[in-house]
Design a protein that fits this description.
By secondary structure, the protein is of the alpha/beta class. About 50% of the residues lie in helices and about 15% in strands. It binds adenine and zinc ion (ZN). The site of zinc ion (ZN) has 6 residues, from β1. GO terms for molecular function: adenine deaminase activity; zinc ion binding. Catalyzes the hydrolytic deamination of adenine to hypoxanthine. Plays an important role in the purine salvage pathway and in nitrogen catabolism.
Length: about 325
């Protein structure tokens, strides 16, 4: 049982955390047919590409700043309810633009949700703006420029997500220069759908402090040593990896092997209802399937706080709460 443990989450896509019941209510409110993407209370997809398509489609039923406030508050309240003290949410102001809401109103809605959740439970949260590879380098640079110029104290990181098989990290390096110059923390989805080369690519082209997933680094022993030597933190999402068939089962998942090789690992839920998981379940898996003791799980949570994209005063407060 991990119910008594404090929790931290560094890798969760906001729209990917949308509870199916809320998405259905939103679709009804706006009279949008999402029956191809949400059936019998579950999101419908069958591989990585169709997952990304489903994600983009269901995101379209969140239309206003109030919709985003409600979505954010709902997810953070769930996290707080299981003992989570800190959450980083991956957000896409570009998506706000695409649906006609606008990037500022999208972010303002999300920030309002954070304020409400913090007032209710004390949970701390920050935002990681993401570019999506499948919308191309220009859109990713646009996302970085938005994050850099927003001067929003809750926006503290920049990420690259989406279709990993599209382009190489170097194609998006300019976006990371912009984000780095603005003082944002950097993280990149790599080594999830693509192999170890994609993690090496991220280190060569950008050298982010963190890597989203990164688990397929296990295919290259030299790369695992490089991650350990650099102290790069992996945002590992085991339930997501199994749902997307990155590994056939939890027994073959490299979380424990990476940790034992000296790589700094954390645990997150990625897009929980899409992958029939939750942060609560990921912590349970760390205990029951990966066999980590409470002290080891606390150490993983501590790594999460150490790697969080927050100012040092907030980091100290979070460490004290742990
Ligand atoms: N966008 C949402 N979830 C993602 C994932 N697991 N990988 C890449 N892009 C994503
Ligand atoms: Zn992700």
């Amino acid at each position: 049982m991990t119910a008594h443990l404090k929790k931290v989450e560094l890798h969760c896509h906001l729209e990917g955390a949308a509870p199916p019941a809320l998405t259905l209510a939103q679709a009804r409110k706006y009279n949008i047919d999402i029956s191809a993407y949400l059936k019998d209370g579950a999101y419908v997809w069958h591989d990585f590409a169709s997952f990304l398509e489903c994600y983009d489609k269901i995101s379209e039923v969140y239309k206003t700043d109030e919709d985003y406030a409600l979505l954010t508050e709902t997810y953070l309240a769930e996290l707080a309810g299981i003992g989570t003290i800190y959450s980083e949410l991956i957000v896409s102001p570009d998506h706000g633009k695409r649906i006609g809401l606008g990037a500022d109103a999208y972010i303002e809605g999300v920030c309002e949700g954070i304020r409400r959740a913090r007032a209710a439970s004390g949970i701390e949260a920050r935002l990681i703006v993401t570019g999506e590879r499948h919308f191309g380098p220009a859109s990713v640079i646009g996302a970085a420029e938005y994050a850099a110029s927003a001067r929003n104290p809750l926006i503290t990181g920049f990420n690259l997500a989406g279709e990993e098989r599209m382009g190489r990290v170097a194609d998006y390096a300019r976006a990371f220069d912009i984000a780095r110059d603005a003082g944002l923390g950097l993280t990149i989805h790599a080594g999830e759908v693509c192999g170890a080369f994609s993690v090496a690519d991220a280190l060569d082209a950008v050298r982010p402090a963190r890597i989203g997933h990164g688990v397929r680094a296990i295919e290259d022993a030299d790369l695992v040593r490089r991650l350990a030597d650099l102290g790069t933190v992996l945002e590992v999402c085991p339930g997501s990896n199994i749902a997307l068939e990155v590994f056939p089962d939890f027994q073959s998942h490299p979380l424990r092997a990476l940790k034992e090789a000296g790589v700094r690992v954390t645990i997150s839920s990625d897009d929980p209802p899409f992958f029939h998981t939750s942060l609560e379940r990921e912590y349970e898996l760390a205990s029951s399937v990966f066999g980590f003791s409470d002290a080891e799980i606390d150490a993983i949570t501590r790594t999460g706080i150490e790697a969080a994209f927050v100012d040092e005063a907030t980091r100290s407060e979070l460490l004290a709460r742990l």
